[in-house]
Amino acid sequence: MIKRSTIETARTLSSLYYALSKESLLTLSDILVYKKCRKGERLIDEGDVCKNLIFIEKGLVRQFYYKNGKELTEHISYENGIVMNIESLFQQEPSRLMIETLEASNIWLIPLNDLERISDSFVDIQRLYRTILKSSLIESQIKADILRFEPANVRYLKLMEYHPEILKRTPLVYVASLLQMTPETLSRVRSSLL
User: Fold this and answer.
1) How far apart are CA 77 and CA 75, in angstroms?
2) CA 159, CA 143: separation in Å to the nearest integer?
3) Which of these, 2, 20, 34, 12, lies nearest to 118 by C-alpha position?
4) Among positive and negative, which fits the CA dihedral 189, 155, 157, 81?
5) Which uninterrupted H or E stretch holds 101?
6) Cβ(84)–Cβ(98) under 8 Å?
7) 112-121 and 22-31 helices cross at what angle (nearest 10)?
8) pLDDT tens-digit series, residues 97-118
9) In contact, 73 and 62? CB cutoff 8 Å
10) What H or E segment, with its residue span, contains residue 64?
């Protein structure tokens, strides 16, 4: 995989979240940290403190946790997505969520301390940062509402509509967990839609 330059990554973030000035693009690019990951690599383990927002240039990443000895997938993201453990990130407490790659991935770490420091000096970076957080919170709320209020077939259809890449690239056991259904229920839902 060929990685983007730091300035290209800053431009991508600017185009996705909030338009930055030239000076802000350069400032943001200075704090970005590139990481090439192999499939199955843990980016955050249980007990780690989350210190970065993770921007996915290429690849597939999931957040998960254990409950009653069972692994439960909470979130899956791919190209141009940002993943973070909000509670651990902002409270600087050990994480209960784990983050791992499901494919070989190119990611960019956006260190929180550096992002907050440069946000104090650049209003447009502050707006970009705020827009990233808003987007994350809105996505979490939409997902929570779908899981709370929609039947299994509608949850699957919404995932198909909004994130077909997840269905194409993610092992079905993780898709079932993400949709809060058993693999058997997922199989029945998929069969009924054929």
Assistant:
1) 7
2) 10
3) 20
4) negative
5) strand 98-101
6) no
7) 160
8) 999 999 999 999 999 999 999 9
9) yes
10) strand 60-67
Nearest to 10 by CA among 120, 98, 132, 96: 132
Query: What SS3 class is residue 175?
Result: helix
Q: Residue 136's CB: how many other CB atoms inside 10 A?
A: 17
Q: Give the count of alpha carbons within 13 A of 23, CB side only.
A: 6
Residues belonging to the chain: 194
- Residue 193 has a pLDDT of 85
Task: Report strand pairing: 82-83 vs 70-78.
Answer: unpaired
| Chain centroid offset of residue 19 CA | 21
SS3 helix, strand, coil % of the chain, rounded to 5? 50, 25, 25
Q: Where are the alpha helices (DSSP H) in 17-122?
A: 22-31, 86-91, 112-121
Tokens 């970076």 sit at which residue?
Answer: 125
Render pLDDT for 59-74 as a digit per residue (tens, 0 to 9): 999 999 999 999 999 9
3-state secondary structure of 71: strand
Look up tokens 């993201």; give the residue.
77
Strand 60-67 to strand 98-101: parallel, antiparallel, or no bridges (unpaired)? antiparallel
Q: Helix 6-16 to helix 22-31 angle, to the nearest 10 degrees?
A: 120
As a whole number of angstroms, the distance between CA 133 and CA 75 comes to 16
Rounded to two decimals, the pTM is 0.93
